[in-house]
Design goal:
heterodimer; A: mainly alpha; Four Helix Bundle (Hemerythrin (Met), subunit A); about 0% strand; elongated; B: mainly alpha; 6 helices
Chain lengths: ~120, ~150
């Protein structure tokens, strides 16, 4: 993984998470901005998948378990899609909160993925 | 919550379900990796890891269908199991580190998951208590369902 890209991903995921939870608690149903923030996060995760495929071949190999890394990455990439899909089934304020929770989970998972890739302790 | 009690999950209950679904996903993924790669290091802890993952999946499903009485009971059992699990394994990971000091959902009271596994069962039980199944055969249950906020 690439450190600065990890920072971007975690920052976007955390910002999207806080934005959606605040907007949801303020009573907003999912809108262009909140859904858009998750779409942006999903784009970053898709880019991360491409990076993770290429990186080992260009001198950036993972130090930890590649299997564990991919379980995290695939799960993380599915979360924004699942969150938005489920949220749009019922357009209420809580749907916005759900998208925020999904985004925060992605933030934690991306950070954990970076730890697996670079500093494996387990 | 002024919406009439319906068997479908709505409102804040959906948030609870999605958090349970994420925990189920995380626990399943992790226990899968642990069992495939280093089961012999801590068979007991990693078996419990897989059990906890299954219970999270069960709890997620039970919460979704908790409008029916059968699933409502399953939800109670699954969430109580989690609460006991996180308390017992959390304690044992300090008392008997050689057996349980391995990264599982419940070790160190779920600190690897931002203590979500410790907090979640309480929210789950609160939700179940305030959302009894609406259609119930007995009059007392129906009355309490109306009274519940």
């Amino acid at each position: 993984m690439i450190l600065w890209f990890t920072y971007v991903e975690v920052a976007v995921a955390a910002a999207a998470g806080i934005l959606c939870i605040v907007a949801g608690l303020a009573g907003r149903p999912p809108g262009d901005v909140t859904v858009g923030s998750l779409a942006l996060l999903e784009l970053l995760l898709l880019a991360q998948i491409v990076i993770a495929i290429i990186a080992p071949f260009v001198g950036n190999p993972p130090t930890g378990s590649l299997l564990e890394f991919w379980v995290y990455l695939v799960s993380a990439a599915l979360l924004p899609i699942a969150g938005v899909a489920w949220a749009l089934l019922e357009r209420s304020r809580w749907s916005t909160v759900i998208m925020g929770v999904a985004a925060l989970a992605v933030a934690v998972m991306v950070w954990r993925m970076h730890a697996i890739w670079t500093i494996q302790v387990a | 919550m002024s919406s009439p009690a319906r068997p479908r999950m709505t409102g804040i209950g959906r948030v609870l379900v999605i958090v349970y679904a994420i925990m189920a996903l995380a626990a399943t993924g992790r226990s899968f990796v642990q069992i495939v790669q280093r089961f012999d290091e801590a068979p007991l802890a990693y078996t419990l890891s897989a059990v906890s993952a299954l219970v999270y999946i069960l709890a997620t499903l039970a919460l979704i269908f908790s409008g029916s009485r059968g699933w409502y009971r399953v939800a109670w059992i699954a969430i109580l199991f989690e609460l006991v699990g996180v308390l017992v394994i959390g304690t044992l990971s300090f008392v008997m580190p050689e057996l349980f000091a391995h990264p599982t959902v419940w070790s160190w009271f779920g600190s690897g998951y931002l203590f979500v596994p410790l907090v979640l069962p309480f929210f789950g039980l609160w939700w179940l208590i305030t959302h009894r199944p609406a259609e119930s055969p007995t009059a007392t249950d129906a009355a309490s369902a109306v009274v519940a906020p």
